[in-house]
Amino acid sequence: MKKQINTDKPEQTEQLAEKIGHALRGGEVVELVSDLGGGKTTFTRGLARGIGSADRVASPTFVISKIYKGKSLELHHFDFYRLADAGLMEYELHDVLGDSGIVVVVEWGDVLAHVLPDDRLTIHLKRTGDDSRELVLSCPETLHYLVENL
Ligand code: ADP
Ligand code: MG
After folding, report:
1. What is the residue-wise DSSP string for 60-129?
2. pTM of the full structure
3. Domains of the chain: total
4. Cβ(46) to ligand 1 under 6 A?
5. Which of 10, 21, 41, 53 is the right S-S partner for 48, CB 3.0 to 4.6 Å?
6. CATH of the domain at 8
């Protein structure tokens, strides 16, 4: 299914992500797609809050992944910006996929698309103005519960 939602400030994107974060059950994969500055990390900040995490969310610049601890789930945040090939990350990602206590969120996932499950929530973010973004969420029926109440 597909859903389009427009936000007109960063906080609104965070709130939307927080709602999705609330609905997470564990074991899901969220892929975020946009240009640089599109709002992927901003969205991730809301997701982390949604699982009850107080951890600071920032772009993992010198590391490729970060872990935010929520009340009952962990959010593993991968950012593959400028990663030329999958290499060992393939194994690292594979290790956490399908773990029922972990939710995986991925920025710049193209290079590892072959490792990501088909059953994932994909969100395309598009800049429509300085403070506005158009979000297109798509997921299979099995992940309907993540987007049905937005
Ligand atoms: P990315 O991770 O995709 O490179 P970031 O989330 O790091 O993007 O940066 C997005 C920037 O755009 C932030 O400075 C954020 O405050 C700003 N911004 C402005 N409007 C929005 C919006 N509606 N939704 C998300 N971010 C927005
Ligand atoms: Mg980012």
Report:
1. -SSSSEEEEE-SS-EEEEEE-TT--S-TTHHHHHHHHTT-TTEEEEEESGGGGTTTS-SS-EEEEEEE-S
2. 0.97
3. 1
4. no
5. 53
6. 3.40.50.300
